[in-house]
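Open question from group meeting: does this chain pack into something compact, or does most of it stay loose? Before anyone orders reagents, we agreed to write out a predicted structure and look at it together. Recording both the input and the output here so the notebook holds the full record.
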Amino acid sequence: MNKKTKWIISFLGVTALAVAMELWAVFDKSPDTIPWTTLFIDNVPVRIGVAIVVFFAGWLVNHFITNYKNKKVYK
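Structure tokens returned:
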């Protein structure tokens, strides 16, 4: 297994774990499992939070558009 394959497996594994944990926290009724959204809202002031969300939403759209335009096949 080469370095790129290890990176892809690790990166996607961490992403899948984070998404799974977030979904668990959202649907679990226990007060001990807190979703990221709640942590963010409770700990980040509104003005800063809105700025962060707007920035990352714009960045994500631009990131995908740019990468689709410059699409490379990774083998």
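Observations to bring back to the group:
The chain has a mean pLDDT of 92.
The first helix runs from residue 3 to 27.
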